[in-house]
Amino acid sequence: MFNKVHHIGIAVKDMGAAIALYEKMGAKLLARETSRDGSADLAMLDLGGDLIEPISPLRDDTNLARFIRERGEGLHHVAYDVKNIEGVIAEMKARGFEMIDEKSRPGFGGHLVAFIQPKSTMGTLWELVEDV
Ligand code: ZN
Q1: Which residue blocks in 28-125 are alpha helix, DSSP H?
Q2: pLDDT tens per residue, range 81-122
Q3: What is the four-CA torsion angle of 99, 62, 132, 44, rounded to 10 degrees?
Q4: Which among 17, 8, 16, 62 is positioned nearest to 35, based on CA atoms?
Q5: SS3 (DSSP) at 66
Q6: 72 CA → ligand 1 middle, Å
Q7: How many structural domains are present in the chain?
Q8: CA 79–ligand 1 middle distance (angstroms)
Q9: Bridge partner residues of 116 (DSSP)
Q10: Contact indicator for 5, 52 with CB cutoff of 8 Å
């Protein structure tokens, strides 16, 4: 059902410092954008074909800001590449997974995304991504 890991999401306080850190390690910045709701600064870096996505809150009243306050910076989510995301969401629900997003929505780069409740996945926030 999942084709491969699409990217790893890392919660950071300082986006500039995060991009500089990963670039120093050999990653290449592909894109940087603000989330559609204006709540987060997002970047996508390529490291040998694998993707790393630093995410940084732009407001204090968001889940991401609360995540960093309570748990600190670090691994935030693992995203999986899927095809037919609506079908995968339906299958996940049929298998008993609790969805945060019952329908896909536009995410980074306009790709379709949906998040799954970490209670359903042994504690890791999962993101489904369909490249469009
Ligand atoms: Zn992501």
Answers
A1: 63-71, 85-94
A2: 999 999 999 999 999 999 999 999 999 888 999 999 999 999
A3: -120
A4: 62
A5: helix
A6: 18
A7: 1
A8: 6
A9: 99, 126
A10: no
**pLDDT at residue 122, as a whole number:** 97
User: Distance, CA 53 to ligand 1 centroid (Å)?
Assistant: 6
Which tens digit of pLDDT belongs to each residue from 55-87? 999 999 999 999 999 999 999 999 999 999 999
Ligand 1 centre to CA of 94 (Å) is 23
What pLDDT score was predicted for residue 74?
Answer: 98
Question: Tokens 């409740």 map to which residue?
Answer: 117
Residue 60: give its domain's CATH number: 3.10.180.10
* Strand ranges in the chain using DSSP code E only, listed in sequence order: 4-11, 28-34, 40-47, 50-57, 74-81, 105-106, 112-116, 125-130
With 0.85 as the threshold, say if the pTM is over it.
yes
